[in-house]
Every structure is written in C-alpha cells, then in structure tokens.
Amino acid sequence: MAPNGDRTEPVGVPEAALRLRRLADHHGAAYRMITHAPEGRTREASVLRGHDLAQGAKCLVVAARPTKRTCRYILAVVPGDRRVDLDRIGELTGCRRTGFAARDTAERLAGSVSGSIIPFSFHPDLELIVDEELLRHETLYFNAARLDLSMALPTADYLRMASPRTAHISTPPADSTAEAAPSATAVP
Questions:
Q1: Distance separating alpha carbons of residues 45 and 38, to the nearest angstrom
Q2: Structural domain includes residue 165
Q3: What is the pLDDT of residue 12?
C-alpha cells in the first residue's frame, strides 16, 4: 500500500481492473487478490487459484438479437463447471437469436481481454445476468481483468457491489471437458 493507505497498481493495468478494485474498496468488500501464471481458461485458472471449478465465475458476452437489425449485449456469468444456455438468455431477453459476441466486441464492452472478463459491467451497453447456481457458493473466484491476477470475493459482497439480474442461464456441460468458446459461434 502507498503511504496514505491507497492501493497502487502498476502502469498499464486495464481500466476495468482499476475500477473493480475501487468498487470493492468503496463497498468495504472482504476480497483477496491472487497472483498466478497468466491463464484465461476457467478450468485451468481454478486449479491455479486452488478452488472448486463450480466457484469460478465464467464470464461470456452474448449477442442477443430482438430483430435482424438490433442487438443487445449480455454479460452472462455462470459457474465454471457449467455452460451458458443461449436459448434461456433469448427467452429472458425476448430475443429471437443469440450467440457469443465477436471477440473484439466482447473485449471492448468488457474492458479487458478474453479470458479475463470480470463479472461486473461498467459499460452501458452490456447487461449483466448471473446464473443462480453460481450464487450458492460463499466465495466467487474470477480473473480480475488480467490474466495473471484473480479475485476471491464473498458472494454477499458481490451481490451488494454488482446488483445483478439473476436467473437460471446455464446447463451442465455435455462432457466434463467442455467449455464454451466465445469465438466459435459469434453472432454478427
């Protein structure tokens, strides 16, 4: 910490990482930062952080189209051991077509690189929906807008800080090694 008690960050830290720390400090959250080797895959990051895969907050940006000419973006947050249910997101948002946003769009809206997206939205065009299954755990773990840094955050603090819309938006994976790939099914 700096002499005045402020936490300092190195130059070049994504704005989303700085905003996350400021938000957590503002709310008096009992968070813990975890440094680790750079990793953006939920399963591997969970191993590095030392927690159950179900406690990892997997954050994916979904493009939801109510019409052919309009698009809404949803930040879908699901447990690390589950898959995003795109059909369910379509039902919840009243959209007829859903798919994963293009990588560059997801990174622009989230303010960080793919694999380090946080379960918070700081962009007005990015709606946050969190799967209710994730909130069953006392603590959530996620990359903190950097591939080499994660946050362990009590779920109660997360709910106070993010005030997310919650719903069932996930399904168990088809197999134990499955994990959604945002770039594979991007919706234009």
A1: 8
A2: yes
A3: 60
